[in-house]
Design goal:
A 6-stranded mixed β-sheet has the order 2-1-6-5-4-3. Helices cover 47% and strands 35% of the residues. It is α+β, with helices and mostly antiparallel strands and 171 residues long. The radius of gyration is 29 Å and the shape is elongated.
Length: 171
Protein backbone atom coordinates (compact mmCIF):
# COMPACT_ATOMS: atom_id res chain seq x y z
CA UNK A 1 0.00 0.00 0.00
CA UNK A 2 2.79 2.41 0.82
CA UNK A 3 4.39 1.76 -2.58
CA UNK A 4 1.06 2.34 -4.35
CA UNK A 5 0.51 5.61 -2.44
CA UNK A 6 4.07 6.78 -3.21
CA UNK A 7 3.66 6.10 -6.98
CA UNK A 8 0.30 7.95 -7.05
CA UNK A 9 1.85 10.93 -5.25
CA UNK A 10 4.74 11.04 -7.75
CA UNK A 11 2.32 10.97 -10.70
CA UNK A 12 0.24 13.83 -9.26
CA UNK A 13 3.38 15.82 -8.39
CA UNK A 14 4.78 15.28 -11.93
CA UNK A 15 1.48 16.41 -13.41
CA UNK A 16 1.51 19.59 -11.30
CA UNK A 17 5.16 20.31 -12.18
CA UNK A 18 4.42 19.84 -15.90
CA UNK A 19 1.49 22.29 -15.67
CA UNK A 20 3.65 24.80 -13.78
CA UNK A 21 6.41 24.41 -16.37
CA UNK A 22 3.93 24.91 -19.24
CA UNK A 23 2.52 28.00 -17.49
CA UNK A 24 6.03 29.43 -16.99
CA UNK A 25 6.84 28.81 -20.67
CA UNK A 26 3.61 30.50 -21.70
CA UNK A 27 4.36 33.54 -19.51
CA UNK A 28 7.91 33.75 -20.90
CA UNK A 29 6.55 33.60 -24.47
CA UNK A 30 3.99 36.33 -23.77
CA UNK A 31 6.58 38.60 -22.14
CA UNK A 32 9.09 37.97 -24.97
CA UNK A 33 6.44 38.75 -27.61
CA UNK A 34 5.52 41.97 -25.82
CA UNK A 35 9.18 42.99 -25.51
CA UNK A 36 9.91 42.32 -29.19
CA UNK A 37 6.81 44.17 -30.35
CA UNK A 38 7.82 47.09 -28.15
CA UNK A 39 11.26 47.17 -29.77
CA UNK A 40 9.77 47.25 -33.27
CA UNK A 41 7.52 50.10 -32.17
CA UNK A 42 10.58 52.01 -30.96
CA UNK A 43 12.26 51.48 -34.32
CA UNK A 44 9.16 52.78 -36.11
CA UNK A 45 9.12 55.78 -33.79
CA UNK A 46 12.78 56.49 -34.59
CA UNK A 47 12.10 56.33 -38.34
CA UNK A 48 9.31 58.84 -37.88
CA UNK A 49 11.59 61.10 -35.84
CA UNK A 50 14.29 60.91 -38.53
CA UNK A 51 11.79 61.73 -41.27
CA UNK A 52 10.36 64.59 -39.19
CA UNK A 53 13.88 66.06 -39.10
CA UNK A 54 14.33 65.53 -42.85
CA UNK A 55 10.99 67.16 -43.70
CA UNK A 56 11.71 70.07 -41.37
CA UNK A 57 15.15 70.52 -43.00
CA UNK A 58 13.50 70.69 -46.44
CA UNK A 59 10.74 73.05 -45.28
CA UNK A 60 13.35 75.46 -43.87
CA UNK A 61 15.22 75.86 -47.17
CA UNK A 62 14.19 79.52 -47.32
CA UNK A 63 15.45 80.15 -43.75
CA UNK A 64 19.08 79.03 -43.66
CA UNK A 65 19.65 80.11 -40.04
CA UNK A 66 16.72 78.04 -38.79
CA UNK A 67 17.76 75.16 -41.04
CA UNK A 68 21.29 75.25 -39.64
CA UNK A 69 19.86 74.39 -36.19
CA UNK A 70 19.24 70.88 -37.57
CA UNK A 71 22.81 70.56 -38.85
CA UNK A 72 25.83 69.57 -36.78
CA UNK A 73 28.83 71.92 -36.70
CA UNK A 74 31.01 69.09 -38.02
CA UNK A 75 28.76 68.29 -40.97
CA UNK A 76 30.43 67.44 -44.26
CA UNK A 77 28.48 68.38 -47.39
CA UNK A 78 29.28 66.96 -50.79
CA UNK A 79 27.92 68.47 -53.98
CA UNK A 80 30.32 69.02 -56.86
CA UNK A 81 32.81 69.91 -54.11
CA UNK A 82 33.46 68.61 -50.59
CA UNK A 83 32.58 71.16 -47.89
CA UNK A 84 34.04 69.85 -44.59
CA UNK A 85 33.37 73.06 -42.66
CA UNK A 86 29.72 73.79 -41.87
CA UNK A 87 30.43 77.41 -40.85
CA UNK A 88 32.05 78.16 -44.24
CA UNK A 89 29.31 76.29 -46.08
CA UNK A 90 26.58 78.26 -44.29
CA UNK A 91 28.36 81.55 -44.99
CA UNK A 92 28.57 80.76 -48.74
CA UNK A 93 24.92 79.65 -48.86
CA UNK A 94 23.80 82.86 -47.12
CA UNK A 95 25.89 85.06 -49.46
CA UNK A 96 24.47 83.33 -52.52
CA UNK A 97 20.95 83.62 -51.12
CA UNK A 98 21.44 87.34 -50.38
CA UNK A 99 22.72 87.93 -53.92
CA UNK A 100 19.70 86.14 -55.41
CA UNK A 101 17.28 88.06 -53.17
CA UNK A 102 18.91 91.41 -54.05
CA UNK A 103 18.08 90.69 -57.71
CA UNK A 104 14.60 89.34 -56.92
CA UNK A 105 13.31 90.18 -53.41
CA UNK A 106 10.15 88.15 -54.01
CA UNK A 107 12.02 84.96 -54.92
CA UNK A 108 10.55 81.88 -53.22
CA UNK A 109 12.37 78.63 -52.73
CA UNK A 110 10.39 75.46 -52.18
CA UNK A 111 11.99 72.09 -51.48
CA UNK A 112 9.93 68.91 -51.43
CA UNK A 113 10.90 65.31 -50.77
CA UNK A 114 9.77 62.13 -52.47
CA UNK A 115 10.59 58.42 -52.24
CA UNK A 116 12.26 58.58 -48.80
CA UNK A 117 14.02 55.54 -47.35
CA UNK A 118 15.41 55.39 -43.81
CA UNK A 119 17.74 52.88 -42.19
CA UNK A 120 18.65 53.16 -38.53
CA UNK A 121 21.77 51.72 -36.94
CA UNK A 122 21.54 52.58 -33.26
CA UNK A 123 22.13 56.31 -32.94
CA UNK A 124 22.99 56.75 -36.64
CA UNK A 125 20.44 56.95 -39.45
CA UNK A 126 20.79 57.10 -43.20
CA UNK A 127 18.01 58.78 -45.14
CA UNK A 128 17.94 58.93 -48.92
CA UNK A 129 15.35 60.55 -51.12
CA UNK A 130 14.73 62.72 -54.15
CA UNK A 131 14.54 66.43 -53.48
CA UNK A 132 12.63 68.71 -55.81
CA UNK A 133 13.91 72.25 -55.60
CA UNK A 134 11.72 75.01 -57.07
CA UNK A 135 12.79 78.62 -57.49
CA UNK A 136 9.63 80.69 -57.88
CA UNK A 137 10.66 84.14 -59.11
CA UNK A 138 8.77 87.29 -58.19
CA UNK A 139 9.55 88.55 -61.67
CA UNK A 140 10.90 87.09 -64.87
CA UNK A 141 10.84 83.61 -66.29
CA UNK A 142 10.26 80.61 -64.11
CA UNK A 143 12.96 77.97 -64.36
CA UNK A 144 12.13 74.26 -64.38
CA UNK A 145 12.43 72.43 -61.08
CA UNK A 146 15.75 70.91 -60.07
CA UNK A 147 15.72 67.26 -58.97
CA UNK A 148 18.55 65.91 -56.82
CA UNK A 149 19.29 62.60 -55.14
CA UNK A 150 20.09 63.32 -51.48
CA UNK A 151 21.64 61.08 -48.87
CA UNK A 152 21.74 62.34 -45.29
CA UNK A 153 23.56 60.76 -42.38
CA UNK A 154 21.93 61.77 -39.11
CA UNK A 155 23.18 61.28 -35.57
CA UNK A 156 20.94 61.13 -32.52
CA UNK A 157 22.17 63.11 -29.52
CA UNK A 158 20.09 63.99 -26.47
CA UNK A 159 16.96 62.66 -28.21
CA UNK A 160 17.39 64.89 -31.29
CA UNK A 161 18.40 63.84 -34.79
CA UNK A 162 21.00 66.14 -36.39
CA UNK A 163 22.45 66.07 -39.89
CA UNK A 164 26.12 65.03 -39.88
CA UNK A 165 26.65 64.44 -43.60
CA UNK A 166 24.88 65.52 -46.79
CA UNK A 167 25.55 64.12 -50.24
CA UNK A 168 23.85 65.66 -53.27
CA UNK A 169 23.88 64.03 -56.72
CA UNK A 170 22.23 65.61 -59.73
CA UNK A 171 19.73 63.53 -61.63
Amino acid sequence: LDLFFFDSFNQINSSINAKECNMKNLIIKIVATFMLSSLSFLSFSSEKEVMDTVYKWAALESDLDAQSELIRDDRVMITSKRWPNQADNLMVQKERRAANLSRDPDLKIIATISSPEVRIYGKVAIADFVRRYDFIPGMGEMSPPNFTYITLVLVEEDGNWEIAHTHNSSM
